Structure formats: structure tokens, C-alpha cells
């Protein structure tokens, strides 16, 4: 059993133990923080498929994060209006809602990723980065100018999607759902990386010319990875909207895209559990340092600089003693 596997298991179990400890100590806010870590780590897992395996440096993944959030928010706002009209107060509490809205959010994000990817992947390098950034900013300004759903002020949601047998308004129940989806996404990512598709995608990242000589299309491989990546990120956006019961244009902002990428860089690009380590560290710093100074990002920037300069494999790579995830 290698060292990195043990680190991954400790990280995953630690994320599960913290909210259980908080529940025993009657600290619901800590459970909410752990839930936020799980959701943002899920967004990082989505981007890590495109970035870590496919080598696609996207600064527009906030577009999929926001589409997932707004899909959930818009459908939930109409649902709450309908249930209020029908005088079904128990539905307004959110205990009877099924996770169909999450599936709609995934489908909407995947469709957006298909369109954006089909256009963006015709370029490469800095041009690809700028085009994905431009798409994210387009959605950002569109959300600001959409008064029907709050515009710049965002949209409040008074319901939360339910799940059979669980009350999602109970913090530990909602954490369990988000944590389970994170574990499922990590398992899917691990299977994808070892599959023929994942190996071909990794090969197209390293040498697309050789992939073409064996009859495979690097463009199709990257587009498929981009769509999968967008769908997972969209799911995290829907869960994030559910957690806060609020969506706003900031979900589309380039800062959000940057934060998701920071999770991966901190944890380790190409590392399966890199986004989990990065998201946990980011939220921890935000919680503790944010209370000390509003300029806490300075400390984050210093840490990020140290990781980039001295720990190319991220935190997980440094702890495991392996600086590079793959060639």
C-alpha cells in the first residue's frame, strides 16, 4: 500500500469525521463548512478531469458552476411559487422535493460545455484560456442583466431539494448527500483515468500527433472530457445553490473559475484527491484567516507561490514524496 493512497484515505475519512464530531458537539456551522468543502471539491474534481488528464487549462468553468446553480435556482423558484399557489406548505419546506432538479442542472451544464467546448477546442494554449474566460464573463454579464431572476442582486431560494428518506434541511443529512456525490465522482474519475478513454486522453495531452496516427481524434477526446468536466462542475453548482439557498452572478465570475483552479494547484494537478485537499485548505484559511483580516488572500497567495515553486505535485505530492503526478 503506497503512501499516497494512505494520505488520500486519511483525507477522505477526515472530511467525514469532522461533521460527525461537529454534530456531537452541536456545531451546525462546522457541518456547513464541511459541506462547502465537499461541494467545492466536487467542482475541482470536475475541472481536474479536463486539466489533470486532458491538459485543458480552462478559466471558464465558473460558467458551468453558475449554470448548474441557476438551473437549480430558477426551477426551485418556480416550484415554490407553484406550491404556494396550491397551498402545499410542506413542499415549501423542501422535504418532498426529489433530486430531479440536480439532473436538469447536470444536463444544462453538459449541453453548455458541449457548445463552448466545440468552439473553444479549435484553439489551444493561451487562446483556449482566453476563450473559456470570455464565455464565463459572457454568462456573468448576462446574469447581471437578467432582472426576471434577480439580476445583480441574485435570486433567493426558499426551498431545498429533498432526497428519499432524508431531511435535507438537517445539516448532517445534506452533508451526507454531498459527501456521497463527491466519493462517487472520485471513483468515476479514478475509473476514467484508467480506462482506454482516459489513457487516450492522457496521450493526446502529451503527443496529439501520435494519437492521430493510430486513428483517434484528439479533438473528440478533449471535447468528451470537457463535457464530462462541465457536467460534474454543474452538479456542484446546483448543490452550492442548495446549500446557500441563493444564487448570484458571482457564481459565473472569473474569480470563481480561479478559485476552482487554485483547489487543484494546491492539492496537486492530476492528483485524484488533489481537489479535496485544496478545497479543504482553502475553506480552512478562509474561515480562520478571514476573521483576522479582510486581506487574507495575501497569505493564500504566498502559500500558492510556495506550492508552485517548491511542490509541483501539490500538497499531496509533497506529503507522499512524489512531486509529479504523471509524465
UniProtKB/TrEMBL annotation:
Protein name: Leucine/isoleucine/valine transporter permease subunit
UniProt GO cellular component terms: plasma membrane
Localization: Cell membrane
Transmembrane residue ranges: 34-57, 62-80, 100-119, 126-149, 169-188, 219-240, 260-285, 297-320
Alphabetical keyword list: Cell membrane, Membrane, Transmembrane, Transmembrane helix
Keyword Zinc: no
Annotated Pfam families: BPD_transp_2
Native source organism of the sequence: Roseovarius litorisediminis
Organism domain of life: Bacteria
Bilayer topology: Multi-pass membrane protein
Molecular-function GO terms, alphabetical: branched-chain amino acid transmembrane transporter activity
Amino acid at each position: 500500500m503506497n503512501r499516497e493512497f494512505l494520505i488520500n484515505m486519511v483525507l477522505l475519512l477526515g472530511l467525514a469525521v469532522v461533521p460527525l464530531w461537529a454534530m456531537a458537539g452541536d456545531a451546525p456551522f462546522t457541518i456547513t463548512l464541511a459541506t462547502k468543502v465537499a461541494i467545492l471539491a466536487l467542482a475541482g474534481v470536475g475541472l481536474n478531469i479536463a486539466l489533470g488528464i486532458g491538459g485543458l487549462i480552462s478559466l471558464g468553468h465558473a460558467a458551468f458552476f453558475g449554470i448548474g446553480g441557476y438551473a437549480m435556482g430558477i426551477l426551485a423558484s418556480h416550484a415554490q411559487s407553484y406550491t404556494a399557489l396550491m397551498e402545499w406548505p410542506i413542499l415549501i419546506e423542501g422535504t418532498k422535493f426529489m433530486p430531479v432538479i440536480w439532473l436538469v442542472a447536470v444536463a444544462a451544464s453538459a449541453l453548455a460545455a458541449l457548445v463552448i467546448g466545440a468552439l473553444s477546442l479549435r484553439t489551444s494554449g493561451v487562446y483556449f484560456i482566453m476563450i473559456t474566460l470570455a464565455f464565463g464573463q459572457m454568462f456573468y454579464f448576462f446574469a447581471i442583466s437578467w432582472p426576471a431572476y434577480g439580476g445583480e442582486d441574485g435570486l433567493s431560494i426558499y426551498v431545498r431539494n429533498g432526497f428519499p428518506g432524508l431531511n435535507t434541511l438537517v445539516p448532517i443529512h445534506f452533508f451526507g448527500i454531498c459527501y456521497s456525490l463527491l466519493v462517487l465522482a472520485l471513483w468515476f474519475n479514478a475509473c476514467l483515468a484508467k480506462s482506454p478513454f482516459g489513457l487516450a486522453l492522457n496521450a493526446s495531452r502529451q503527443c496529439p500527433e501520435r494519437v492521430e496516427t493510430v486513428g483517434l481524434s484528439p479533438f473528440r477526446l478533449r471535447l468528451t472530457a470537457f463535457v464530462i468536466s462541465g457536467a460534474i462542475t454543474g452538479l456542484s453548482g446546483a448543490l452550492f445553490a442548495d446549500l446557500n439557498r441563493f444564487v448570484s452572478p458571482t457564481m459565473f465570475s472569473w474569480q470563481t473559475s480561479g478559485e476552482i483552479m487554485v483547489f487543484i494547484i494546491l492539492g496537486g494537478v492530476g492528483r485524484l484527491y488533489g481537489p479535496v485537499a485544496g478545497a479543504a485548505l482553502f475553506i480552512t484559511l478562509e474561515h480562520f484567516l478571514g476573521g483576522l483580516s479582510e486581506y487574507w488572500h495575501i497569505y493564500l497567495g504566498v502559500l500558492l507561490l510556495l506550492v508552485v515553486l517548491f511542490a509541483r505535485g501539490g500538497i499531496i505530492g509533497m506529503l507522499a514524496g512524489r512531486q509529479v503526478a504523471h509524465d
